[in-house]
């Protein structure tokens, strides 16, 4: 009996010691999101660099043997991710507001290779190597050797949680190793690099950690494209980011409609998205610098982005009667072809809203909603589908280092819908009402864009490089419109 008691006591003491050891080993104590600083040396970035004597290679070298991939990638936002003046403006503001440390966080997604080598830690382009300026370059994606998604503070992919390993030390000289989806053929790499096959290059996992952007300290998901996708019917049907963004326009439409994967030979390196404004600005810059070929590539991406937006949604108009008389109009907005919420990513910056106008037989306006104000801002009662950010003081905020939560989040889930209601009062004797609805999209609020572009670092000159002397009215894309005549009496 006594022996039993003793054993229980010893077991209890051992348990207490084990717990104490476990507590001491957990890196940061009281925070909701403890961080393993030994693993994540570039924190607030969660990128890991396995350094060897093999260096990163600039895209122009890869182009020598992979001309087609280079042509497609070169006009993409991935190639512009670091030189993007909108990014540079915001980054400049971030470093001034928070300090140098946040620079690693931003640049590890916008120019990963140059961040882990220490070349870049803040805004500005002066004196940087081609690898740095190439942003999300060939050698970023094709040097990813593994993923740290389950070891992040949020236990989800976030803030660049991938491992970069461009090669091995080698016996005599460094050996470059490039990773991709295929089983390497014998001649793979043409003597320039070795090849290794991975299972994640054809999956959303590769894109996940950069397309899940968390607040640098509080780990709030500011951009949640990956998780939106992961919980969608597309993920359940094995349709990944690549199947819509690494193909041409018609193939993307086919993927989304049929929920089937493209054929192997249909994959392209366009990474085309929705940011038509940046393609357009950059095409102007390329024209100014005399690079006609690059401006053609960028204008092609511009057109693809506008067309993609115009395929993303569908509208439905339904009259609602009360006591036999038209009382309200319901507008349903359906996300039919985006594999994540619509809009996604920077949902507290991008704007998507309804413009609704209804008239009676005499042309008298009976509903008017969502027309832009004279200064380019949205009217306060507009039905919009983005998010509003708030800081830790719960006040409205927009900058990503201030926003720690959303006060509203109205984006539309994949294959899902949201409804908007508009009250109508028509003069007696009116028989029918004509309703016109437009779903509109732009990159940002006019004032926000103006502030950002004014904050670009000194070595970017908007007028010299981009031909922008005065910030123009931001272009709006009409994603879809619909007109319907409804009877006033049921
Ligand atoms: C954002 C990540 C990313 C970037 C940047 C990128 N690739 Fe790829 N690459 C991929 C993925 C994903 C695949 C697999 C696509 C598929 O399913 O076939 C791929 C496939 C390839 C292949 C195999 C053949 C093929 O086209 O399927 C080659 C070669 C290649 N990439 C070269 C390049 C070169 C050269 C660049 C730069 C000019 C580049 N990649 C930039 C992600 C990237
Ligand atoms: C985890 C990766 C990641 C981190 C960290 C990150 N970004 Fe980004 N950023 C992205 C992605 C992905 C997009 C593209 C979203 C889109 O186009 O909808 C983006 C887009 C942007 C844009 C919009 C560019 C345009 O032309 O409209 C700005 C500005 C920006 N980021 C600034 C920053 C700043 C400043 C920081 C640091 C405080 C930062 N980002 C940190 C991934 C990241
Ligand atoms: C000297 C020529 C040469 C250069 C330079 C070169 N490659 Fe390759 N690479 C090849 C050959 C040959 C193959 C075999 C398959 C093919 O033809 O696409 C290949 C295959 C690949 C693959 C496909 C692996 C797979 O899954 O099938 C990737 C990814 C790749 N290269 C990336 C790169 C990147 C990134 C660079 C620049 C850092 C680069 N290559 C530079 C010749 C080259
Ligand atoms: C190393 C980080 C990183 C990885 C990996 C990455 N991206 Fe991106 N991606 C970015 C950044 C940063 C931007 C935004 C650049 C900007 O706007 O300045 C971007 C932009 C984009 C855009 C354009 C968005 C728009 O508004 O038009 C698309 C589409 C995209 N990425 C798709 C993908 C896909 C698909 C993959 C995986 C195959 C992928 N990305 C992997 C960092 C990354
Ligand atoms: C079924 C097709 C489909 C799939 C799958 C898909 N997308 Fe998209 N994506 C779209 C469409 C359509 C748009 C344009 C509408 C919009 O902005 O949401 C878009 C837009 C984007 C944008 C630009 C958002 C903006 O407003 O600036 C980014 C970034 C992006 N996708 C990344 C991804 C990533 C990362 C994945 C995988 C996790 C993915 N997409 C999966 C169809 C798809």
Outline of the structure:
Keywords: Signal. The chain is an alpha+beta fold and 490 residues long.
Topology, element by element:
Blueprint: H1 2-25, E1 48-49, H2 59-63, H3 67-74, H4 77-80, H5 85-98, H6 101-110, H7 112-116, H8 130-133, H9 138-141, E2 144-147, E3 162-164, E4 167-168, E5 175-180, E6 194-197, H10 204-208, E7 213-214, E8 221-223, H11 225-230, H12 233-236, H13 241-245, H14 249-258, H15 276-288, H16 292-312, E9 313-322, E10 325-335, E11 351-360, E12 365-369, E13 387-390, E14 396-397, E15 405-409, E16 417-423, E17 432-442, H17 446-454, H18 462-466, E18 477-487
Parallel strand pairs: 1-3, 5-6
Antiparallel strand pairs: 2-3, 4-5, 7-8, 9-10, 10-16, 11-12, 11-17, 13-14, 13-15, 17-18
Helix pairs in contact: 5-6, 5-17, 15-16
Number of H- or I-type helical stretches: 18
Mean pLDDT: 93
- Whole-number count of domains: 2
Strand arrangement in the largest pleated sheet? 12-11-17-18
Structural class: alpha+beta
- Helicity range: 25-40%
Q: Shape from CA axes?
A: globular
Listed once per kind, the bound small molecules are: heme C
**Whole-angstrom Rg:** 26 Å
Distance between the termini: 87 Å
Largest sheet, strands/sense/barrel? 4 strands, antiparallel
Detail the poorly predicted runs: 19-29
Q: What's the total count of β strands?
A: 18
Q: Report the sheet-strand fraction.
A: 15-25%
Domain Cytochrome c-552/4: 61-143
InterPro entries: Cyt_c-552/4 (IPR023155), Multihaem_cyt_sf (IPR036280)
Pfam family, one: Cytochrome_C554
Protein name: Cytochrome c family protein
């Amino acid at each position: 009996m006594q022996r039993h008691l003793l054993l229980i006591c010893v077991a209890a003491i051992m348990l207490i010691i084990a717990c104490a050891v476990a507590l001491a080993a957990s890196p940061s104590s009281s925070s909701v999101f403890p961080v393993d600083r030994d693993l994540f040396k570039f924190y607030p970035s969660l990128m890991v660099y396995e350094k060897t004597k093999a260096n990163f290679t600039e895209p122009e070298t890869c182009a020598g043997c992979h001309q087609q991939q280079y042509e497609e990638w070169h006009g993409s936002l991935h190639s512009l991710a670091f030189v993007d003046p909108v990014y540079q403006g915001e980054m400049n503001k971030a470093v001034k507001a928070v300090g140098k440390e946040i620079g690693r966080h931003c640049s590890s997604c916008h120019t990963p290779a140059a961040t882990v080598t220490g070349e870049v830690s803040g805004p500005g382009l002066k004196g940087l190597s081609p690898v740095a300026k190439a942003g999300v370059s060939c050698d970023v994606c094709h040097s990813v050797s593994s993923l740290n998604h389950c070891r992040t503070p949020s236990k989800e992919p976030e803030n660049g949680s991938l491992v970069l390993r461009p090669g091995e030390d080698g016996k005599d000289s460094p050996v470059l190793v490039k990773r991709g989806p295929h089983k390497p053929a014998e001649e793979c790499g043409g003597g320039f690099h070795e090849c290794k096959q991975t299972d994640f290059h054809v999956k959303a996992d590769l894109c996940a950690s950069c397309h899940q952007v968390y607040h640098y300290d509080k780990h709030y998901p500011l951009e949640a494209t990956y998780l939106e996708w992961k919980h969608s019917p597309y993920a359940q049907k094995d349709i990944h980011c690549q199947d819509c963004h690494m193909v041409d326009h018609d193939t993307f439409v086919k993927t989304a409609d049929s929920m089937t994967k493209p054929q192997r030979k249909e994959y392209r390196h366009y990474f085309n998205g929705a940011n038509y404004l940046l393609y357009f600005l950059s095409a102007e810059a390329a024209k100014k610098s005399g690079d006609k070929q690059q401006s053609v590539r960028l204008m092609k991406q511009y057109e693809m982005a506008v067309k993609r937006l115009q395929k993303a949604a569908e509208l439905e108009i339904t009259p609602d009667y009360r006591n036999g008389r038209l009382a309200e109009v319901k507008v349903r907005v359906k996300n039919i072809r985006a594999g994540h919420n619509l809009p996604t990513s920077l949902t507290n910056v991008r704007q998507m809203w309804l413009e609704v106008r209804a008239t009676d037989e005499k042309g008298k306006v009976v509903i008017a909603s969502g027309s832009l104000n004279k200064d380019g801002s949205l009217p306060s009662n507009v039905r919009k589908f983005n998010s509003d950010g708030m800081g830790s003081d719960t006040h409205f905020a927009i900058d990503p280092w201030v926003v720690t939560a959303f006060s509203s989040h109205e984006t539309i889930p994949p294959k899902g819908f949201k409804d908007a209601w508009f009250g109508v009062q028509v003069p007696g004797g009116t028989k029918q009402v004509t309703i016109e609805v437009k779903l509109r999209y732009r990159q940002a609020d006019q004032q926000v864009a103006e502030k950002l572009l004014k904050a670009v670092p000194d070595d970017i000159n908007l007028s010299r490089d981009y031909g922008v002397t005065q910030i123009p009215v931001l272009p709006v894309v009409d994603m879809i419109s619909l007109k319907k005549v409804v009877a006033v009496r049921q």
